[in-house]
Amino acid sequence: MAGLAGDSPGAAGPLTLSALRGYRAYARRWVFLLVISLLSCSNATLWLSFAPVADTIAQHFGLSTEQINWLSLVYLVASIPFGVVAVWVLDSVGLRWAILLSAWLNFAGSVIRSLPCMLTTIHDPFAFLLGGQSLCALAQTLVIFSPAKLAALWFPEHQRATANMIGTMSNPLGLLVANLLSPALVKKEEDIPVMLGIYTIPAGLAFLLATACLWESAPPTPPSAGAAHSTSEKFLDGLKLLARNKAYIILAVCFGGGIGIFSSFSALLEQVLCVNGYSNEFAGLCGALFIVFGVLGALALGLYVDRTKHFTGAIKIGLCLTSLVCVAFALVSQLQGQTVALAAICSLFGFFGFAVAPVAMELAVECSFPVGEGAAAGLLFVLGQAEGVLIMMLLAALTVRRAEPSFSTCQDGQDPLDWKVSMLLMAGLCVLFSCLMVLFFHTPYRRLQAEADANPSIQEDTCPATSEPSGHAPHPAATL
Questions:
Q1: How far apart are CA 425 and CA 395, in angstroms?
Q2: Measured between alpha carbons, how far is 428 from 474 in angstroms, rounded to an integer?
Q3: pLDDT digits (tens, 9 = 90+) for 409-457
Q4: In terms of C-beta density within 10 A (0-12 exposed, 13-18 middle, 19 or more buried), how is residue 439 classed?
Q5: Cβ-contact 350, 294 below 8 angstroms
Q6: How far apart are alpha carbons 72 and 309 in whole angstroms?
Q7: Rounded to 5, what percent of the chain is helix, strand, coil?
Q8: Pick from 414, 372, 366, 419: which is nearest to 392 by CA?
Q9: 23, 9 in Cβ contact below 8 A?
Protein backbone atom coordinates (compact mmCIF):
# COMPACT_ATOMS: atom_id res chain seq x y z
CA MET A 1 0.00 0.00 0.00
CA ALA A 2 1.51 3.27 -1.12
CA GLY A 3 1.56 6.13 1.36
CA LEU A 4 3.23 9.27 2.56
CA ALA A 5 6.45 9.07 4.53
CA GLY A 6 5.47 8.36 8.08
CA ASP A 7 2.17 6.71 7.13
CA SER A 8 1.44 3.43 8.90
CA PRO A 9 -0.96 0.73 7.68
CA GLY A 10 -3.10 -1.22 10.10
CA ALA A 11 -1.96 -4.63 11.30
CA ALA A 12 -2.93 -7.25 8.71
CA GLY A 13 -4.24 -10.70 9.44
CA PRO A 14 -4.79 -13.59 6.99
CA LEU A 15 -8.60 -13.30 7.18
CA THR A 16 -8.86 -9.50 6.97
CA LEU A 17 -6.04 -8.37 4.67
CA SER A 18 -8.35 -6.89 2.03
CA ALA A 19 -10.32 -4.96 4.65
CA LEU A 20 -7.22 -3.67 6.37
CA ARG A 21 -5.85 -2.27 3.13
CA GLY A 22 -8.30 0.58 3.67
CA TYR A 23 -6.81 1.62 7.05
CA ARG A 24 -4.11 4.25 6.81
CA ALA A 25 -2.50 6.78 9.19
CA TYR A 26 -1.35 10.01 7.53
CA ALA A 27 1.77 11.89 8.59
CA ARG A 28 -0.11 15.20 8.59
CA ARG A 29 -2.01 14.03 11.66
CA TRP A 30 0.92 15.39 13.67
CA VAL A 31 0.44 18.86 12.16
CA PHE A 32 -3.19 18.80 13.26
CA LEU A 33 -2.10 17.72 16.74
CA LEU A 34 0.48 20.54 16.86
CA VAL A 35 -2.14 23.19 16.01
CA ILE A 36 -4.60 21.90 18.61
CA SER A 37 -1.86 21.68 21.23
CA LEU A 38 -0.61 25.23 20.61
CA LEU A 39 -4.15 26.61 20.61
CA SER A 40 -5.06 24.79 23.82
CA CYS A 41 -1.85 25.96 25.50
CA SER A 42 -2.44 29.58 24.48
CA ASN A 43 -6.05 29.46 25.67
CA ALA A 44 -4.99 28.16 29.07
CA THR A 45 -2.38 30.92 29.51
CA LEU A 46 -5.09 33.49 28.83
CA TRP A 47 -7.40 31.84 31.35
CA LEU A 48 -4.95 31.88 34.26
CA SER A 49 -2.81 34.89 33.38
CA PHE A 50 -4.47 37.10 36.01
CA ALA A 51 -4.68 34.61 38.90
CA PRO A 52 -0.95 34.49 39.90
CA VAL A 53 -0.86 38.30 40.19
CA ALA A 54 -4.47 38.85 41.27
CA ASP A 55 -3.66 41.41 43.95
CA THR A 56 -1.54 43.58 41.61
CA ILE A 57 -4.17 43.45 38.84
CA ALA A 58 -6.89 44.43 41.31
CA GLN A 59 -4.87 47.40 42.56
CA HIS A 60 -3.96 48.63 39.06
CA PHE A 61 -7.48 48.57 37.62
CA GLY A 62 -9.27 49.44 40.86
CA LEU A 63 -11.08 46.10 41.02
CA SER A 64 -12.13 43.88 43.90
CA THR A 65 -10.81 40.38 44.52
CA GLU A 66 -14.23 39.03 43.57
CA GLN A 67 -14.03 40.74 40.16
CA ILE A 68 -10.57 39.28 39.56
CA ASN A 69 -11.91 35.83 40.42
CA TRP A 70 -14.62 36.29 37.79
CA LEU A 71 -11.94 36.69 35.12
CA SER A 72 -11.11 33.04 35.77
CA LEU A 73 -14.61 31.92 36.71
CA VAL A 74 -16.09 33.11 33.40
CA TYR A 75 -14.29 30.24 31.68
CA LEU A 76 -16.28 27.80 33.77
CA VAL A 77 -19.59 29.65 33.47
CA ALA A 78 -19.40 30.06 29.68
CA SER A 79 -18.56 26.41 29.11
CA ILE A 80 -21.85 25.21 30.58
CA PRO A 81 -24.29 26.52 27.94
CA PHE A 82 -21.79 26.79 25.08
CA GLY A 83 -20.15 23.45 25.81
CA VAL A 84 -23.18 21.64 24.38
CA VAL A 85 -22.97 23.83 21.27
CA ALA A 86 -19.27 22.97 20.97
CA VAL A 87 -20.07 19.26 21.17
CA TRP A 88 -22.57 19.66 18.33
CA VAL A 89 -20.05 21.60 16.23
CA LEU A 90 -17.40 18.90 16.70
CA ASP A 91 -19.63 15.95 15.85
CA SER A 92 -21.87 17.59 13.23
CA VAL A 93 -19.97 20.46 11.56
CA GLY A 94 -16.50 18.93 11.82
CA LEU A 95 -13.19 19.11 13.64
CA ARG A 96 -11.57 21.60 11.24
CA TRP A 97 -14.28 24.25 11.59
CA ALA A 98 -14.34 23.80 15.36
CA ILE A 99 -10.60 24.50 15.58
CA LEU A 100 -10.78 27.46 13.17
CA LEU A 101 -13.58 29.08 15.14
CA SER A 102 -11.72 28.43 18.39
CA ALA A 103 -8.53 30.04 17.04
CA TRP A 104 -10.40 33.14 15.84
CA LEU A 105 -12.24 33.60 19.15
CA ASN A 106 -9.07 33.03 21.16
CA PHE A 107 -7.07 35.66 19.26
CA ALA A 108 -9.90 38.21 19.32
CA GLY A 109 -10.35 37.74 23.07
CA SER A 110 -6.62 38.20 23.72
CA VAL A 111 -6.67 41.52 21.86
CA ILE A 112 -9.87 42.87 23.48
CA ARG A 113 -8.63 42.28 27.01
CA SER A 114 -5.46 44.26 26.19
CA LEU A 115 -7.40 47.37 25.15
CA PRO A 116 -7.67 48.95 28.66
CA CYS A 117 -3.88 49.26 28.65
CA MET A 118 -3.73 50.54 25.05
CA LEU A 119 -6.54 53.13 25.12
CA THR A 120 -6.53 55.77 27.85
CA THR A 121 -10.15 56.73 27.12
CA ILE A 122 -11.56 53.51 28.57
CA HIS A 123 -13.30 54.21 31.89
CA ASP A 124 -14.53 50.70 32.64
CA PRO A 125 -11.57 48.34 32.19
CA PHE A 126 -13.40 45.44 33.81
CA ALA A 127 -15.90 45.30 30.93
CA PHE A 128 -13.09 44.83 28.40
CA LEU A 129 -11.16 42.39 30.58
CA LEU A 130 -14.28 40.29 31.15
CA GLY A 131 -15.38 40.60 27.50
CA GLY A 132 -12.02 39.38 26.23
CA GLN A 133 -11.95 36.55 28.75
CA SER A 134 -15.48 35.58 27.69
CA LEU A 135 -14.44 35.17 24.04
CA CYS A 136 -11.46 33.10 25.14
CA ALA A 137 -13.81 31.03 27.27
CA LEU A 138 -15.95 30.27 24.21
CA ALA A 139 -12.78 29.22 22.37
CA GLN A 140 -11.92 26.86 25.20
CA THR A 141 -15.14 24.90 24.83
CA LEU A 142 -14.19 24.09 21.23
CA VAL A 143 -10.52 23.21 21.61
CA ILE A 144 -10.57 21.39 24.92
CA PHE A 145 -13.00 18.75 23.60
CA SER A 146 -10.96 18.18 20.43
CA PRO A 147 -8.09 15.83 21.42
CA ALA A 148 -10.35 12.78 21.80
CA LYS A 149 -11.98 13.54 18.45
CA LEU A 150 -8.62 14.06 16.74
CA ALA A 151 -7.18 10.86 18.22
CA ALA A 152 -10.20 8.84 17.09
CA LEU A 153 -10.28 10.23 13.53
CA TRP A 154 -6.59 10.50 12.65
CA PHE A 155 -4.56 8.10 14.83
CA PRO A 156 -4.29 4.27 14.80
CA GLU A 157 -5.23 2.24 17.88
CA HIS A 158 -1.73 2.06 19.34
CA GLN A 159 -1.29 5.87 19.27
CA ARG A 160 -4.73 7.09 20.34
CA ALA A 161 -4.10 7.44 24.08
CA THR A 162 -0.71 9.10 23.46
CA ALA A 163 -2.19 11.60 20.97
CA ASN A 164 -5.04 12.32 23.39
CA MET A 165 -2.53 12.80 26.18
CA ILE A 166 -0.46 15.31 24.16
CA GLY A 167 -3.50 17.34 23.16
CA THR A 168 -5.08 17.23 26.61
CA MET A 169 -1.88 18.05 28.49
CA SER A 170 -1.23 21.11 26.33
CA ASN A 171 -3.90 22.85 28.38
CA PRO A 172 -2.16 22.39 31.76
CA LEU A 173 1.11 23.27 30.04
CA GLY A 174 -0.47 26.66 29.36
CA LEU A 175 -1.34 26.91 33.05
CA LEU A 176 2.32 26.24 33.80
CA VAL A 177 3.39 29.07 31.50
CA ALA A 178 0.92 31.46 33.15
CA ASN A 179 2.02 30.47 36.66
CA LEU A 180 5.67 31.15 35.81
CA LEU A 181 5.36 34.02 33.36
CA SER A 182 2.82 36.30 35.06
CA PRO A 183 4.77 36.71 38.36
CA ALA A 184 8.01 37.05 36.39
CA LEU A 185 6.59 39.79 34.15
CA VAL A 186 4.55 41.73 36.70
CA LYS A 187 6.80 43.11 39.41
CA LYS A 188 4.87 46.38 39.59
CA GLU A 189 1.67 47.80 38.13
CA GLU A 190 3.46 49.38 35.16
CA ASP A 191 4.38 45.89 33.89
CA ILE A 192 0.78 44.80 33.31
CA PRO A 193 0.51 46.12 29.69
CA VAL A 194 3.64 44.15 28.74
CA MET A 195 2.16 40.97 30.21
CA LEU A 196 -1.11 41.37 28.31
CA GLY A 197 0.75 42.06 25.07
CA ILE A 198 3.00 39.02 25.39
CA TYR A 199 0.04 36.69 25.89
CA THR A 200 -1.43 37.76 22.53
CA ILE A 201 1.60 36.38 20.63
CA PRO A 202 0.90 32.60 20.95
CA ALA A 203 -2.81 33.30 20.38
CA GLY A 204 -1.94 35.03 17.10
CA LEU A 205 0.41 32.23 16.06
CA ALA A 206 -2.24 29.58 16.73
CA PHE A 207 -4.71 31.67 14.69
CA LEU A 208 -2.33 31.81 11.71
CA LEU A 209 -1.43 28.10 11.81
CA ALA A 210 -5.05 26.98 12.13
CA THR A 211 -6.10 29.17 9.20
CA ALA A 212 -3.20 28.16 6.96
CA CYS A 213 -2.61 24.49 7.79
CA LEU A 214 -5.95 22.81 8.48
CA TRP A 215 -7.86 21.83 5.35
CA GLU A 216 -9.95 18.80 6.30
CA SER A 217 -11.73 17.44 9.36
CA ALA A 218 -10.99 13.77 8.71
CA PRO A 219 -8.43 11.90 6.61
CA PRO A 220 -9.49 10.45 3.23
CA THR A 221 -8.92 6.94 4.59
CA PRO A 222 -9.57 6.06 8.27
CA PRO A 223 -6.66 4.76 10.37
CA SER A 224 -8.72 2.12 12.24
CA ALA A 225 -12.04 0.32 12.38
CA GLY A 226 -13.12 2.63 15.20
CA ALA A 227 -12.39 5.70 13.05
CA ALA A 228 -14.43 4.21 10.19
CA HIS A 229 -17.48 4.19 12.51
CA SER A 230 -16.70 7.49 14.28
CA THR A 231 -19.78 9.57 15.14
CA SER A 232 -22.05 6.83 13.84
CA GLU A 233 -24.85 8.09 16.11
CA LYS A 234 -26.67 11.37 15.42
CA PHE A 235 -26.10 14.14 17.95
CA LEU A 236 -29.44 14.00 19.80
CA ASP A 237 -29.54 10.20 19.62
CA GLY A 238 -26.06 10.14 21.10
CA LEU A 239 -27.10 12.36 23.99
CA LYS A 240 -30.02 10.05 24.73
CA LEU A 241 -27.69 7.05 24.77
CA LEU A 242 -25.32 8.82 27.15
CA ALA A 243 -28.19 9.71 29.49
CA ARG A 244 -29.05 6.00 29.74
CA ASN A 245 -25.45 4.84 30.17
CA LYS A 246 -24.87 4.29 33.92
CA ALA A 247 -21.10 3.90 33.59
CA TYR A 248 -20.77 7.11 31.60
CA ILE A 249 -22.87 9.08 34.10
CA ILE A 250 -20.71 7.91 37.01
CA LEU A 251 -17.54 8.77 35.09
CA ALA A 252 -18.93 12.20 34.15
CA VAL A 253 -19.93 13.09 37.72
CA CYS A 254 -16.70 11.87 39.33
CA PHE A 255 -14.22 13.07 36.74
CA GLY A 256 -16.21 16.27 36.27
CA GLY A 257 -15.87 16.88 40.00
CA GLY A 258 -12.14 16.35 39.65
CA ILE A 259 -12.00 18.97 36.88
CA GLY A 260 -13.88 21.38 39.13
CA ILE A 261 -11.46 20.80 42.00
CA PHE A 262 -8.41 21.27 39.80
CA SER A 263 -9.86 24.42 38.22
CA SER A 264 -10.56 25.89 41.66
CA PHE A 265 -7.11 24.90 42.91
CA SER A 266 -5.38 26.61 39.95
CA ALA A 267 -7.43 29.81 40.18
CA LEU A 268 -7.28 30.21 43.97
CA LEU A 269 -3.76 28.94 44.75
CA GLU A 270 -2.16 32.39 45.07
CA GLN A 271 -4.95 33.67 47.33
CA VAL A 272 -4.77 30.60 49.58
CA LEU A 273 -0.99 30.77 50.01
CA CYS A 274 -0.48 34.54 50.37
CA VAL A 275 -2.68 34.56 53.48
CA ASN A 276 -0.08 32.47 55.30
CA GLY A 277 2.92 34.51 54.20
CA TYR A 278 3.92 32.84 50.94
CA SER A 279 4.97 35.13 48.08
CA ASN A 280 3.44 35.33 44.61
CA GLU A 281 6.66 33.86 43.24
CA PHE A 282 6.36 30.81 45.49
CA ALA A 283 2.69 30.38 44.56
CA GLY A 284 3.74 30.53 40.92
CA LEU A 285 6.42 27.92 41.59
CA CYS A 286 3.89 25.61 43.23
CA GLY A 287 1.55 26.05 40.27
CA ALA A 288 4.44 25.29 37.92
CA LEU A 289 5.42 22.13 39.78
CA PHE A 290 1.76 21.12 39.78
CA ILE A 291 1.73 21.27 35.98
CA VAL A 292 5.23 19.92 35.22
CA PHE A 293 4.74 16.78 37.27
CA GLY A 294 1.19 16.51 35.93
CA VAL A 295 2.49 16.40 32.36
CA LEU A 296 5.10 13.80 33.35
CA GLY A 297 2.46 11.67 35.05
CA ALA A 298 0.15 11.95 32.05
CA LEU A 299 2.95 10.97 29.68
CA ALA A 300 3.84 7.89 31.71
CA LEU A 301 0.24 6.79 32.18
CA GLY A 302 -0.69 7.55 28.57
CA LEU A 303 2.08 5.32 27.25
CA TYR A 304 1.11 2.60 29.75
CA VAL A 305 -2.57 2.47 28.79
CA ASP A 306 -1.71 2.64 25.07
CA ARG A 307 0.12 -0.66 25.57
CA THR A 308 -2.11 -2.37 28.13
CA LYS A 309 -5.58 -0.80 27.63
CA HIS A 310 -6.11 -0.95 31.43
CA PHE A 311 -8.10 2.29 31.50
CA THR A 312 -10.35 1.50 34.46
CA GLY A 313 -7.64 0.33 36.86
CA ALA A 314 -5.39 3.27 35.97
CA ILE A 315 -8.03 5.91 36.61
CA LYS A 316 -9.21 4.38 39.89
CA ILE A 317 -5.71 4.15 41.34
CA GLY A 318 -4.87 7.65 40.11
CA LEU A 319 -7.95 9.19 41.75
CA CYS A 320 -7.29 7.46 45.08
CA LEU A 321 -3.71 8.75 45.21
CA THR A 322 -4.92 12.22 44.19
CA SER A 323 -7.34 12.25 47.12
CA LEU A 324 -4.60 11.50 49.62
CA VAL A 325 -2.46 14.34 48.32
CA CYS A 326 -5.43 16.74 48.29
CA VAL A 327 -6.00 16.05 51.99
CA ALA A 328 -2.32 16.77 52.65
CA PHE A 329 -2.57 20.10 50.80
CA ALA A 330 -5.67 21.12 52.75
CA LEU A 331 -3.76 20.66 56.00
CA VAL A 332 -0.27 21.93 55.13
CA SER A 333 -1.46 25.01 53.19
CA GLN A 334 -2.78 26.46 56.47
CA LEU A 335 0.68 26.37 58.08
CA GLN A 336 3.48 28.91 57.80
CA GLY A 337 7.00 28.23 56.57
CA GLN A 338 6.27 24.88 54.90
CA THR A 339 7.73 25.73 51.52
CA VAL A 340 9.43 22.37 50.89
CA ALA A 341 6.40 20.36 51.97
CA LEU A 342 4.01 22.48 49.90
CA ALA A 343 6.21 22.25 46.82
CA ALA A 344 6.35 18.44 47.16
CA ILE A 345 2.60 18.18 47.74
CA CYS A 346 1.76 20.33 44.70
CA SER A 347 4.11 18.20 42.59
CA LEU A 348 2.40 14.97 43.67
CA PHE A 349 -1.06 16.54 43.29
CA GLY A 350 -0.30 17.26 39.65
CA PHE A 351 1.49 13.95 39.02
CA PHE A 352 -1.45 11.80 40.15
CA GLY A 353 -4.33 14.11 39.26
CA PHE A 354 -3.44 15.30 35.78
CA ALA A 355 -2.31 11.83 34.77
CA VAL A 356 -5.88 10.52 34.76
CA ALA A 357 -7.27 13.27 32.48
CA PRO A 358 -6.34 11.78 29.07
CA VAL A 359 -7.19 8.30 30.36
CA ALA A 360 -10.66 9.54 31.34
CA MET A 361 -11.15 11.00 27.85
CA GLU A 362 -10.33 7.66 26.24
CA LEU A 363 -12.44 5.80 28.78
CA ALA A 364 -15.41 8.08 28.04
CA VAL A 365 -15.21 7.10 24.37
CA GLU A 366 -14.75 3.41 25.19
CA CYS A 367 -17.74 3.15 27.50
CA SER A 368 -20.07 5.17 25.23
CA PHE A 369 -19.16 3.91 21.73
CA PRO A 370 -20.68 4.41 19.11
CA VAL A 371 -21.65 7.86 20.44
CA GLY A 372 -19.53 10.60 18.84
CA GLU A 373 -16.19 11.35 20.48
CA GLY A 374 -17.02 15.06 20.74
CA ALA A 375 -20.13 14.33 22.76
CA ALA A 376 -18.50 11.66 24.93
CA ALA A 377 -15.44 13.74 25.86
CA GLY A 378 -17.08 17.17 25.66
CA LEU A 379 -19.91 16.52 28.07
CA LEU A 380 -17.36 15.37 30.66
CA PHE A 381 -15.84 18.83 30.55
CA VAL A 382 -19.19 20.62 30.46
CA LEU A 383 -20.24 18.87 33.65
CA GLY A 384 -16.77 19.44 35.09
CA GLN A 385 -16.97 23.18 34.43
CA ALA A 386 -20.44 23.33 35.98
CA GLU A 387 -19.14 21.56 39.07
CA GLY A 388 -16.13 23.87 39.01
CA VAL A 389 -18.35 26.96 39.17
CA LEU A 390 -20.23 25.56 42.14
CA ILE A 391 -17.08 24.41 43.92
CA MET A 392 -15.18 27.67 43.40
CA MET A 393 -18.12 29.81 44.51
CA LEU A 394 -18.68 27.57 47.52
CA LEU A 395 -15.00 27.68 48.52
CA ALA A 396 -14.96 31.48 48.24
CA ALA A 397 -18.25 31.81 50.17
CA LEU A 398 -16.89 29.80 53.10
CA THR A 399 -13.99 32.18 53.65
CA VAL A 400 -14.10 34.89 56.32
CA ARG A 401 -11.95 37.95 56.91
CA ARG A 402 -9.67 37.67 59.90
CA ALA A 403 -8.25 40.74 61.56
CA GLU A 404 -5.26 38.94 63.03
CA PRO A 405 -1.96 40.71 62.69
CA SER A 406 0.23 39.68 60.28
CA PHE A 407 2.35 37.61 58.14
CA SER A 408 -0.01 37.89 55.14
CA THR A 409 1.65 38.91 51.85
CA CYS A 410 -1.66 39.58 50.04
CA GLN A 411 -1.64 43.03 48.43
CA ASP A 412 -5.36 43.69 47.99
CA GLY A 413 -5.42 46.10 50.94
CA GLN A 414 -7.97 44.11 52.94
CA ASP A 415 -7.78 41.83 55.93
CA PRO A 416 -6.59 38.33 54.94
CA LEU A 417 -9.08 35.52 54.33
CA ASP A 418 -9.29 32.30 56.31
CA TRP A 419 -9.32 29.40 53.82
CA LYS A 420 -9.19 26.55 56.34
CA VAL A 421 -12.81 25.36 56.01
CA SER A 422 -12.73 25.81 52.24
CA MET A 423 -9.63 23.66 51.81
CA LEU A 424 -11.02 20.91 54.04
CA LEU A 425 -14.20 20.91 51.94
CA MET A 426 -12.15 20.64 48.74
CA ALA A 427 -10.30 17.63 50.14
CA GLY A 428 -13.56 16.03 51.27
CA LEU A 429 -15.10 16.40 47.82
CA CYS A 430 -12.00 14.88 46.21
CA VAL A 431 -12.24 11.84 48.50
CA LEU A 432 -15.98 11.53 47.82
CA PHE A 433 -15.60 11.51 44.03
CA SER A 434 -12.76 8.99 44.21
CA CYS A 435 -14.78 6.62 46.40
CA LEU A 436 -17.78 6.80 44.08
CA MET A 437 -15.56 6.01 41.10
CA VAL A 438 -13.86 3.06 42.77
CA LEU A 439 -17.03 1.50 44.13
CA PHE A 440 -19.54 2.02 41.33
CA PHE A 441 -17.74 2.41 37.99
CA HIS A 442 -17.58 -0.72 35.83
CA THR A 443 -17.75 -0.89 32.04
CA PRO A 444 -16.84 -2.97 29.02
CA TYR A 445 -14.57 -1.32 26.45
CA ARG A 446 -17.04 -1.05 23.58
CA ARG A 447 -14.81 0.54 20.94
CA LEU A 448 -11.98 -1.96 21.46
CA GLN A 449 -14.49 -4.79 21.25
CA ALA A 450 -15.92 -3.40 18.00
CA GLU A 451 -12.42 -3.17 16.53
CA ALA A 452 -11.63 -6.69 17.68
CA ASP A 453 -14.82 -7.94 16.04
CA ALA A 454 -13.86 -6.14 12.82
CA ASN A 455 -10.37 -7.66 12.90
CA PRO A 456 -10.41 -11.21 14.31
CA SER A 457 -6.65 -11.51 13.93
CA ILE A 458 -6.14 -9.17 16.90
CA GLN A 459 -9.03 -10.57 18.94
CA GLU A 460 -6.70 -12.47 21.23
CA ASP A 461 -4.69 -9.35 22.10
CA THR A 462 -7.64 -7.01 22.51
CA CYS A 463 -10.34 -8.97 24.28
CA PRO A 464 -8.65 -9.22 27.70
CA ALA A 465 -8.78 -5.42 27.87
CA THR A 466 -12.39 -5.05 26.79
CA SER A 467 -13.84 -5.35 30.25
CA GLU A 468 -13.01 -3.91 33.61
CA PRO A 469 -10.33 -5.86 35.53
CA SER A 470 -12.71 -7.28 38.09
CA GLY A 471 -11.39 -10.81 38.17
CA HIS A 472 -14.23 -12.18 36.01
CA ALA A 473 -13.90 -13.64 32.56
CA PRO A 474 -13.99 -11.13 29.72
CA HIS A 475 -17.39 -10.57 28.20
CA PRO A 476 -18.59 -8.98 24.97
CA ALA A 477 -19.53 -5.34 24.96
CA ALA A 478 -23.07 -4.90 26.15
CA THR A 479 -25.42 -2.88 24.01
CA LEU A 480 -26.52 0.52 25.25
A1: 8
A2: 35
A3: 666 556 667 788 889 999 999 999 999 999 999 888 887 887 777 665 4
A4: exposed
A5: yes
A6: 35
A7: 75, 0, 25
A8: 419
A9: yes
